[in-house]
Amino acid sequence: YAPWCPACQQIETIWESFAKESEHLDITVGKVDVTQEPGLSGRFFVTTLPTIYHANDGVFRRYRGSRTLEDLQGYVLERKWEAVEPVAGWKSPSSIMMHGMAGLFHFSGYIRQIHNYLTGTLGLHVWISYAVFILATLLIGLFLGL
């Protein structure tokens, strides 16, 4: 979820109720703020918000059903998750590919911090910051090409 997301705000009370019922369902329920954990949003390939996953014994399934408390509980109690196709092996959050994707999301956060430092702290114009990144990209490409 993200704090600014209207759909996430709409499901928040239902999700909190579902989390309170989690002991009776013998599951653990959590939520992750993708603005605070960009690596996880990359690892789980989050493209829409909110995104709900069911994980059991290292197998991940994306929940796409109705977002009512009853349907969420039924998904677990009636074991409806067994009928859902697991996330493909290469796209699984535990795969090497998605581990690399998480690294790219972290890297983009560092780039954003550098940009904010150049423009905010040092007071450089935005276009100068862009020029620095363009030059760095070209130099890295030339270095790798050698």
UniProtKB/TrEMBL annotation:
- Which stretch is the leader sequence? none
- What's the short name of a Pfam family annotated to this entry? Thioredoxin
**Gene3D superfamilies reported for this sequence:** Glutaredoxin
> Main localization of the protein?
endoplasmic reticulum
Keywords attached to this entry: Disulfide bond, Electron transport, Endoplasmic reticulum, Membrane, Redox-active center, Signal, Transmembrane, Transmembrane helix, Transport
* InterPro entries hit by this protein: Thioredoxin-like_sf, Thioredoxin_domain, TMX_domain-containing
Q: Which SUPFAM superfamilies match?
A: Thioredoxin-like
Occurrences of domain Thioredoxin (ranges): 1-76
Q: Name one GO molecular function term.
A: disulfide oxidoreductase activity
Compartments (UniProt record)? Endoplasmic reticulum membrane
Cellular component (GO) terms are:
endoplasmic reticulum membrane
The regions listed as transmembrane in this protein's record are 122-144
Q: How does it sit in the membrane?
A: Single-pass membrane protein
Q: Which PANTHER family does its entry note?
A: DUMPY: SHORTER THAN WILD-TYPE (PTHR46107), THIOREDOXIN-RELATED TRANSMEMBRANE PROTEIN 4 (PTHR46107:SF1)
Instruction: State the protein's name.
Output: TMX4 protein
- What taxonomic lineage is listed for the species of origin? Eukaryota, Metazoa, Chordata, Craniata, Vertebrata
